[in-house]
Each structure stands twice: as C-alpha cells, then as structure tokens.
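=== RUN LOG ===
request id: a7f3
mode: sequence -> structure
chains: 1
length: 320
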Amino acid sequence: MSEKLQKVLARVGLGSRRYMEEVIAAGRVSVNGKVAQVGERIEFGDELRIDGRKVQFQLEEEIRRRVLVYYKPEGEICSRNDPEQRPTVFDNLPQIANDRWVMVGRLDINSTGLLLFTNDGELANRLMHPSNEVEREYAVRVMGDLTPEMRQTLIKGVELEDGPAKFESITDLGGEGINRWYQVVVKEGRNREVRRLFESQELKVSRLLRTRYGSVILPRELRTGRWIELDKQDIDILAKLVELKPRQGTGLFGLAKRRADRMTEKPMAARRGGYLRQQRRDESEGAAPTNSKPSNSSERPKRPLNVTKKPNFKKRDPQR
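=== RESULT ===
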C-alpha cells in the first residue's frame, strides 16, 4: 500500500497539504536518498527526510481508527472557535497526537445528546453524506397535540425551504399536559431539520436530544459534557455501515511497533502468562509439571549463608 507524500507529511503535523506541496517542490524533501516530487507516492519502509532530518511517518491504513462518543450539553456550539468566546464541544475533548478530531454532524446550541468525533475524515464524510442514509434518532419534547393526520404527513414528507424532508418513524413516548415526548428517526442531517419538520405542522419543539447515530447509541451512564471512546469492535461495525473496511493499525510505530510485532510472532507459551498455559498443556498430556517456578511466589528466597557481604565503597579523598 502506498500514499501520496504530501498527504503523509500533512498528517504528521508539519503543515497543510498545500504547504507541504510547496516544501516538496522546493527540493527540501527526500525519499530513500532521492529528491522527492510533488504527487510521489510513499510506502511503508521508505526513508523520509525533510531538510536532511529523518521523519517518522505512518500510512493511513496503519493509523488506529478512533471514535469518541460525546454527550453535548445545552449551550455549547459545534465549532472549534467562536468570536463570541462561547464554550464549544471541542473544549472537553482529549488531545490526539499528530492528528485531529473531526466532528460527525452537528447539533444546534439548544440541542443536546450524542455527537460523534473521529480521526478518520473518510469515515466522518460517509456517515454524514445523505446518499448513505445513516439513521439519526432523537427524543423530542413537543408543545401541542400531534394528530394522526399530522403524523402521516410528517412520515410521507413535507416541502421545506431546502427541499423535501420526512421522518422515517415517529413513536409516542408519553408526557403530561401539552408537552409530549416522541422518538423520531431521520436519514439526513440538515440544519434544524427535526425542529423545522414539526414547525411545518405548527408544533414547537421545546427539547431535543439525539440518542443514536447509526449503530452508536448514547450510553445511559454517560453524563453531559463527558466522552467515551468506542472499542475496535464497535468502530468496525460503524465503518461497515458505510462500506469501509476495518483498519488493522495499532497506532504504534518505531520501537513500540517492533515490540508489538515481536509479541505477536512469539508462540503462546513465550508470552506473558505463557508459563501457566504451558503447565496446563503438559498436565493434559500426562507430563510431569515443571518445578522451575516457586510454589509460593510471595515468599522471598533467603540469602545463602556462604554469600560474602558486598564491600562498602566509600568516597576517597582526592589525592594531593
């Protein structure tokens, strides 16, 4: 597998892709000892240098795909920077080395609930693109009575300012007085789409909480303003939803990557804890268990009596 040089350099964090193209065109980048060209592709194992200094890099496939689930509270905006200095959803996210978090969809300042963040831009784009029809589920509190006729109209579809829109489903969740809760599902992420759909029937949304995006459900134990990271299995399910292959990358490189590779190449008995597995294997085959390990590892062996005490080397006065 190979990847364009300027894309790799930009991901390392040395500058934007356009700036890296200028650096390459200036002859400051070399690959395997030869001056690189703009658009040149680089592979794993190639030696990459800028101004003579070696650069550690990873191809996109080797980078661990990461996804965060964030519980957005009311009052935060979905932007990295705000001229009015209002709190943003990015303020509470963890730092990610040599990479950045990409937000999947948006929620307006008064809405709450599930927001996804990933370091994989392709995954984010596919999850947001209308052609993939990824479901978004919301719990909505509505002021007013949703009649059967209104429900049928919203499921069949209405014409909004930016085109037709509809709910895939509407489920009554109960409520008291004029406030009723509904669970609704849409397959697009247009600006204030859920609110505008209800407004088309002269109903006002007083609360809006996103509870699901695709295969990811907002955890009950997650508090507002907090995040959790999905494990690889859940990320692979989410990626498969938009026809992306799982990544095998660990996010490790250099010495850490070589150590991990060596561990996977060793037989099971040679890994940590392998002694017990080997002992069980020997016992199942009828072999006598080895006695190389102490029966009680908490007991410290006593010092043999014939061991001479180590000399105490004191600091000598300097010779005059």
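=== NOTES ===
Residues 2-62 form a domain with the Structural Genomics Hypothetical 15.5 Kd Protein In mrcA-pckA Intergenic Region; Chain A fold (CATH 3.10.290.10).
The chain is about 25% helix and 25% strand.
=== END ===
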